[in-house]
């Protein structure tokens, strides 16, 4: 009986690997459908009797036949788990094959019916494509699990202790590589398998991948592409996509180029790339009344941490404590408590809360607008940290609209391009969502996106060739969901497909007036507010005024 219970539990767990408990398979499932799935997953493993199996059968039947037909993969998964449960029960209770043959026949006919459903789904997908046409997908994801970027003086875990991913600080771990590979599979599931938008095999003209100039984001991009285009099921051709009959070449590995820019001047991928203007704006933030008041409230905690860590801990560098402690809990949970006796969960929660609040200031999450000498510091900070990236996303969509049916040679690259991916950081993803005004609504429960969290911006055309955008979110590495969050954006009126002009207006609002290399050298304290165009307009006004005298 014990072995029987274990086997049934494995069936449950296999299904849960497809449907995490408490998490919807798709945001499009109705509440009643979600309850049916949860009810099916939460079977009582102790009731290994025929009565239990009959009850299990009924639950499976309800789920299989009442779920919307568009959830074909879910229905097939449930069908397989149901059949496994029956087979295990039969073997454990000595039932004859004849007694169960009718169930095999039922299963066969069910699978035939599901194949018909898949065909119908393809037809419905085609009908949807006739209504809306997908032109471009831009993806941005946070890297996977990594080693700390730095640590505090008294930390017993030094850089030499971090041997994963090549060793040292700031490296992607094997766990992070796996997270990104799984994300790549999930992305393929949506854009290759479901929407039939991206090609089944890698195409350099249709796919472009860019990473910031750090090992963890570059290796994350490589791992992600292995998930999308490096699996046996992808049916790549030896001799065409990778070397043929070459001893030592990793099976089915298709090399995909990852592009990058110099880190200090990558204003698109790095919100905190070198920028004097941002530094001066941040100084205004740290000197503000709100921040100073908060600093006073946590002063005792900071003093206590300084004693424990053996070094000064500025409020805006609390990550030097929080970052290593967070990661050490993952990789050295037992050793952390043994070698850092002052560490406990209650203290960590306080550190984490202080980190979240301080990080929030970087994203202009103030209790009230921060105005200094007439300057909206929060707005200017978002313009510097997120404006370049947001506007590049917008520019790509406008360029795609200009080029998708053009024969102009200048459009050769963008006309073919379908997928532009950014392998970046939590700060990049969250700053983008903050500019959309949905950061706090989407990233739950923490402030910043978790490992392998991802955002997607889709560009669509309707029948009249009017452009729309759809923003989707993938919350973390344990989720199997990619769901639309567009309806949360102000101006989208609760719709999944939003007028592209809404995106354009946000981009314009946060667009730096001049190229970033020049903009970063402007002084926010200047009367012109660092705006060269304003100064130019004033000069033109003066010139016109005097020429009319």
Detailed description of the structure:
The structure is a single chain. The chain is 51% helix and 9% strand. It is α+β, with helices and mostly antiparallel strands and 549 residues long. The protein has 4 domains: 2-95; 132-264 and 379-508, 3-Layer(aba) Sandwich (Rossmann fold); 277-370, no CATH class; 516-547, no CATH class. Strands 1, 2, 5, 6, 7, 8 and 9 form a 7-stranded mixed beta sheet that branches. A hairpin with a 2-residue loop joins strand 3 and strand 4 (375-376). The chain is globular. The chain crosses the membrane at residues 105-124. Belongs to the histidine acid phosphatase family. Residues 284-311 form a coiled coil. Its EC number is 3.1.3.2.
What is the topological layout?
Blueprint: H1 2-16, H2 31-41, H3 50-66, H4 72-92, H5 97-131, E1 132-142, H6 174-194, E2 207-211, H7 215-229, H8 276-286, H9 289-297, H10 299-309, H11 319-331, H12 333-339, H13 345-362, E3 371-372, E4 375-376, H14 377-403, H15 412-416, E5 419-424, H16 426-435, H17 439-442, E6 454-462, E7 467-474, E8 483-484, E9 498-499, H18 500-509, H19 516-519, H20 532-547
Parallel strand pairs: 1-5, 2-5
Antiparallel strand pairs: 1-6, 3-4, 6-7, 7-8, 7-9
Helix pairs in contact: 1-4, 2-3, 3-4, 4-5, 6-7, 8-14, 11-13, 14-16, 14-18
Pfam families: His_Phos_2 (PF00328)
Coiled coil: 284-311
EC number: 3.1.3.2
> Could you give the count of β-strands?
9
* CATH classification class of the largest domain: Alpha Beta
The major pleated sheet works out as: 7 strands, mixed
Write the CATH homologous superfamily of the largest domain.
Answer: Phosphoglycerate mutase-like
In whole angstroms, the N-to-C terminal distance is 103 Å
Keywords: Coiled coil, Disulfide bond, Glycoprotein, Hydrolase, Membrane, Signal, Transmembrane, Transmembrane helix
Family: Belongs to the histidine acid phosphatase family.
Protein name: acid phosphatase
GO molecular function: acid phosphatase activity
């Amino acid at each position: 009986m014990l072995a029987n219970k274990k086997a049934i539990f494995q069936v449950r767990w296999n299904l849960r690997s497809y449907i995490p408990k408490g998490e919807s398979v798709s945001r499009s499932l109705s509440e009643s459908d979600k309850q049916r799935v949860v009810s099916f997953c939460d079977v009582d493993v102790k009731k290994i009797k025929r009565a239990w199996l009959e009850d299990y059968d009924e639950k499976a039947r309800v789920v299989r036949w009442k779920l919307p037909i568009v959830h074909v993969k879910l229905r097939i998964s449930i069908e397989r788990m149901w059949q496994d449960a029956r087979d295990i029960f039969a073997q454990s209770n000595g039932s004859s094959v004849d007694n169960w043959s009718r169930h095999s026949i039922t299963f066969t006919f069910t699978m035939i019916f599901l194949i018909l459903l898949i065909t119908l789904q393809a037809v419905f997908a085609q009908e949807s494509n006739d209504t809306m046409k997908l032109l471009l997908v831009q993806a941005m994801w946070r890297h996977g699990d990594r080693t700390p970027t730095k640590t505090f003086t008294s930390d017993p875990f030094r850089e030499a202790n971090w041997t994963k991913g090549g060793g040292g600080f700031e490296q992607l771990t094997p766990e992070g590589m796996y997270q990104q590979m799984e994300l790549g599979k999930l992305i393929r599931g949506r854009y290759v398998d479901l929407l039939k938008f991206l090609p089944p095999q890698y195409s350099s003209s249709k796919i472009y991948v860019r990473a910031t100039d750090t090992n963890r984001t570059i290796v994350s991009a490589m791992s992600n592409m292995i998930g999308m285009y490096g699996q046996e099921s992808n049916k790549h051709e030896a001799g065409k996509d990778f070397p043929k009959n070459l001893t030592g070449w990793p099976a089915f590995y298709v090399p995909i180029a990852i592009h990058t820019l110099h880190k200090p001047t990558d204003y698109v991928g790095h919100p905190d790339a070198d920028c004097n203007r941002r530094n001066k704006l941040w100084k205004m933030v740290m000197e503000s009344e709100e921040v100073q008041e908060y600093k006073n409230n946590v002063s005792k905690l900071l003093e206590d941490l300084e004693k424990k860590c053996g070094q000064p801990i500025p409020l805006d560098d609390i990550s030097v404590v929080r970052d290593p402690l967070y990661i050490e809990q993952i990789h050295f949970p037992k050793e952390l408590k043994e070698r850092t006796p002052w560490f406990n969960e209650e203290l960590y929660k306080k550190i984490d809360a202080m980190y979240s609040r301080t990080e929030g200031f970087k994203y202009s999450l103030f209790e009230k607008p921060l105005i200094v000498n007439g300057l909206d510091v929060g707005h200017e900070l978002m313009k510097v940290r997120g404006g370049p990236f947001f506007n590049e996303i917008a520019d790509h969509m406008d360029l795609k609209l200009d080029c998708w049916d053009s024969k102009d040679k200048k459009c050769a690259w963008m006309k073919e391009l379908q997928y532009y991916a950014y392998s970046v950081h939590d700060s990049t993803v969250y700053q983008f969502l903050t500019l959309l005004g949905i950061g706090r609504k989407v990233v739950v429960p923490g402030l910043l996106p978790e490992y392998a969290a991802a955002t997607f911006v889709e560009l669509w055309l309707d029948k009249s060739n009017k452009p729309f955008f759809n923003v989707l979110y993938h919350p973390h590495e344990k989720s199997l969901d990619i769901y639309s969050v567009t309806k949360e954006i102000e101006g989208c009126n609760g719709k999944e497909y939003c007028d592209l002009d809404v995106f354009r207006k946000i981009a314009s609002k946060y667009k730096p007036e001049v190229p970033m290399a020049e903009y970063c050298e402007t002084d926010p304290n200047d009367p012109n507010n660092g705006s060269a165009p304003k100064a130019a307009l004033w000069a033109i006004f003066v010139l016109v005024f005097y020429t009319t005298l």
